């Protein structure tokens, strides 16, 4: 049966799982950041290998700026660069830059300078205006002669009109206008330049400029009514000589873009029409310095690198502020990202993250979290942490292999971090709420039971409910003999020290035999076995504990424990402790109130154990057992001690004395002693002559000499207790099988 704390912990764990599943569905910023950071790590571990493709970057680098002057260059120089690329056979020339203002270095701008009007009249100015060149017109003319693609950039709504795109668009399935990245305003080039170009595409790399790492690049944009291509995909269209881009979209509880076709190339996209970037490391092979193109003597290898290639003109100069971070941890020019996008398309190297992946990741988290909850309930915090960690690590390895081998992006972070959160929440909850009962139990029992018993109690705390249960137990009472006389020799403080020292030593023996210490009553100790931990041989454990306590008392008297440690500084008489043990049915459980309890045993069995301990003084032996206990400890060295009267019971209680352990029970000396003792018991039952009884007692005392437990007083007292042996036959204890072999070796029969 599942305990109430376990049910509460399970419900709490399920509540955490439901709450975190809601967080994953909402997908807030910090969840996206963790996921995307993991994807960055994948790319850093396995970047896309650089392959030779028909894509080149014409770099306005630091060397070009030193040779041709600061940026922006005159449009006439840009026109020369454009024409030279066209002459080299570039398949498309795309500009990752804007030409939004008239060329400030154009000679035509000088005619309108007010300072010039101070020196020339209107007729001279008009003549001059007809003769000087217009750099923007020169650049526009150059653009019209080559397959040029200009750019435009996203700006806030209302800050710029959108351009008239050159690409045609078609779509299959659902209209994609609401699905793709929004562009409600644009920064554009001068109108003559846009008109001269064969293509126009967005140079923006993200819908939001706050993106620190470029992981996805929109391929198409929309203002809600029309579509606009990205710079790279527009350059590809121009290079392939196609007029129309085809967008494949479906309506599945919202419009989802699946792919974009350029000619015969299908490009898989995200749901919003973007492409996941799979970066390679920066490679100088994709770059050509602009100064090499504008050089007076052009290297033939440079011509080969341009012919038939898509060239993108951009800048790597630090001062021009077009440096972006990539997933592989590099800072690269923005034009490099456009170039790498084209490399991915042309080499068919993609990473995929389908729309159904979110659901699979949610299932993965629920699986890990449920596993953690189950392990937390079934095991301790350490085991659940380790097994949950192994499972999360396995998922992480699986997601890495999916990326490395198939280009699939699965998030390992949320299942792992969510599982860790559930683990911490479960551990905290169980510590403060569900384990409160366990801590109460440990505080109450840790000094009174063995660790194995305590673990069982913690696993089954329901056994400690008020009222308890009726169970067979073995009860032990131990009492210090002549304690009143002893205490008169000590001060009150020394009495406490004495009791603490002796009872602590006795308690350790009980706990070592997995007993439960019930209580200390002054100079008396009470313990029982078979509750709360079930043990089939509980009577044997109780007897072994009594033998261990006999030895502990001997060490105490010898000074190994007790007096030497307390430093009383005076001689005390030898300590003697009597033990009475009984086995029978008793009620065991939490005796008391709900706020303060005492796990105890009550019933007739406890009363008889107390009476047996009291009778040990009269019997004159330190460890006395009832018949039921002796029957459960047959392998020990046990002798019959007659019967005793118990107040309130009509029948007498048979008693036995515990002489020693199993080794003694198998010894020749004890077997001979028991045979002689049995003959003595028979003689007492049959009320033979006193002379014969005395002879038998003498024989027993002689055989008992040298044993650890002195039996002289016991046999001396028998003559005073003859009535205890007349009222009923004394039960026989089954012999240990070794006895028969000893008898055979001695040449005796069973009845001898």
Q: Could you report the average pLDDT, rounded to the nearest whole number?
A: 86
Number of helices: 29
Portion in helices: 40-55%
Question: How many domains make up the 3D coordinates?
Answer: 4
**Poorly predicted segments:** 728-752
Distance between the termini: 57 Å
Number of strands: 26
Radius of gyration: 49 Å
Look at the helices and sheets and give the structural class: alpha/beta
Shape annotation: rod-shaped
Strand content: 15-25%
The largest sheet is: 8 strands, mixed
Protein name: Adenylate/guanylate cyclase domain-containing protein
Organism: Stappia albiluteola
GO molecular function: adenylate cyclase activity
Domain Guanylate cyclase: 474-613
Describe the structure.
By secondary structure, the protein is of the alpha/beta class. The chain has four domains: 4-47 and 354-434; 55-347, no CATH class; 454-634, Alpha-Beta Plaits; 666-752, no CATH class. The protein has 29 helices and 26 strands. The strands form six sheets. Strands 19, 20, 21, 22, 23, 24, 25 and 26 form an eight-stranded mixed sheet that branches. Strands 1, 2, 3, 6, 7, 15 and 16 form a seven-stranded mixed sheet that branches. It has a four-stranded mixed sheet with strand order 4-11-12-13, covered by helices on one side.
Brief summary:
This protein is of the alpha/beta class and 752 residues long. The chain is 46% helix and 19% strand. The protein is rod-shaped.
Topology (SSEs and partners):
Layout: H1 4-26, H2 29-45, E1 55-59, H3 62-68, H4 75-87, E2 92-95, H5 107-111, H6 114-117, H7 122-131, H8 135-144, E3 148-154, E4 168-173, E5 181-182, E6 186-187, H9 191-196, E7 199-202, E8 216-218, E9 220-222, E10 227-229, H10 231-240, E11 244-251, E12 255-262, E13 265-268, E14 274-276, E15 287-289, H11 290-293, H12 300-306, E16 310-314, E17 323-325, E18 331-333, H13 334-347, H14 357-378, H15 381-406, H16 413-434, H17 436-445, H18 451-459, E19 469-480, H19 483-487, H20 492-512, E20 516-521, E21 524-529, H21 538-558, H22 563-566, E22 577-592, E23 597-602, H23 604-619, E24 623-626, H24 627-631, E25 637-644, E26 653-660, H25 662-665, H26 668-685, H27 690-704, H28 712-718, H29 737-746
Parallel strand pairs: 1-15, 1-16, 2-3, 2-16, 3-7, 4-11, 5-9, 22-24
Antiparallel strand pairs: 3-6, 8-14, 9-10, 11-12, 12-13, 17-18, 19-21, 19-22, 20-21, 22-23, 24-26, 25-26
